[in-house]
Amino acid sequence: MLCEKNIFKKDYKQVDLRFALAYPNVYRTAMSSLGYTILYNCINEREDTWCERIIFPSTNSIESNTPSKYFDILSFSLQFEEDYFNLLKMLKDAQIPLKRSERGDEDPLIIAGGPCATANPMPLSDYIDIFIIGEGENVINELIDVYLSNPDKGLEKFLKVDGVYIPEFDNETKIAIIEDLNETYHVTYPIVSEGDVADDMSVFNNSIMLNVSRGCTRGCRFCMAGYLYRPMRQCDHRKLIDIALENRKNSGLNKVTLIGAAVSDYSNLDDLIDGLESEGFQISTPSLRIESITRNTLETLKKSGLKTITLAPESTSNLRKVINKHILEEQIFTVIKNAIDLDFNIKLYFLIGIPGESMEDIHDLCEYMKKIAEMHYNPKKVKFSVNPVIPKPHTPLQWEGYDFKDVKKKTRYIQKEMKNYNIKCESPKKGLIQYTLSCGNRQVGAIIEKSLTKNVILKEWRDIAPKYEIDDPLPWDNIDTGVNKKFLKIEHKRLKNLKQTPWCETGPCYNCGACEK
Ligand code: SF4
């Protein structure tokens, strides 16, 4: 049975607004989402609002068992495109009409936020009343203020809130970004979960999630988050240590997970780790960039209890140029060797379906993975995860499409060639569906809805999967992330020519547009 500490219980008669934060995936995933936990605490700071959580597959709140349809606002967090199916299922199971055109005054206002909602609201635009575009903390408070000042059902009044897209008006909007991480809201009163099954714990297993940075400007051409949330912003390491101490005081937790788009790029990483370690914290982090991991960082992480190092070389050297992930072979092999010496478990991520990639490249990739595995005294201790590249909105790959047949052929080859190693390949069909949900238009909504009652066959996904030419209008053109299309087109051209675009933190600015937001 699930047991939680530090949740908010309020008297519903004493608040003006009941807000449900819905998560269309299981508890373990929901409670590992930094954005979800920030919004929960941040909204509950308001005396006029009680924010409760509704987590798939349930349609009632955890805090008071209230059914979804009795909330004033029902807000979905969209971290993964595959969760769109669960979102519609949650509405259906809650007996809330799916389509916004079929809902009435007695139904909650349905909103959605998170990276998928930000990048391309179109596939769900017949179902969601308002999308939050960007980092939600500021937008949500303004949206609640507007709601409370005029709770009638008309949506026009929300157009004045920065960072919202309202399908009814098909308005143009600019992404909302937190400028200063030192000034923004950080959780200091974290929920602690205890349960008798692993699913009742967060992925980070009851640790304090410290938001060290947001945004990454390295410019990997496949990475949607890297284009959406520019520029890179960091929180001062002394402030982070204070936040960790406050969290420990309020929760008793002693393990810290460092969260950021690229934690190892954090400029004071060693000071932060040393400071946390001297306060007796155990430290862990899910994301490290190979080129900024030093032996010292690995040793400190090892000492503080980290067991697994997850790295993403993505591909072989030449293909890394296509995706602008310029890591030297020497750096990759040094980090892996150090990680093996320090007895870490090692997990490595690779991509297939990179533009221009041939079967010969796939053969080379298999040899490359074998070479890495054989560095270990027990090659099975090195885990490989191979995933198709999913072209995403607002990236230079948005014009590349998804070649299902090609990905399938390559996946089969790798599975056969690597059968004696510890490898997991993502299904090519899942990749196709994810691509279609990411880059599709309004019509994709009908297929998602159909899947609630009928089986959607592969051919239907293949038929609806888009392929955009460079001058086509794109479904997400109304969303201005700051990064301009001209820059993305230049990057698209550069990827064809294997040209690298350097990191703007250490090199010159190449005017992507993000800093003029
Ligand atoms: S505008 Fe320049 S400095 Fe800012 S993120 Fe883009 S390239 Fe980097």
UniProtKB/TrEMBL annotation:
InterPro entries given in the database record: Aldolase_TIM, Elp3/MiaA/NifB-like_rSAM, Radical_SAM_N2, rSAM, rSAM_sf
CDD domains reported for this sequence: Radical_SAM
SUPFAM superfamilies hit by this protein: Radical SAM enzymes
Keywords for this protein: Iron, Iron-sulfur, Metal-binding, S-adenosyl-L-methionine
Domain Radical SAM core span(s) in chain numbering: 202-424
One MF annotation (Gene Ontology) recorded for this entry: iron-sulfur cluster binding
Any one Pfam family match given in the protein's UniProt record, by short name: Radical_SAM_N2
Domain of life: Archaea
SMART domains: Elp3
Protein name: Coproporphyrinogen III oxidase
Organism, as annotated: Methanobrevibacter thaueri
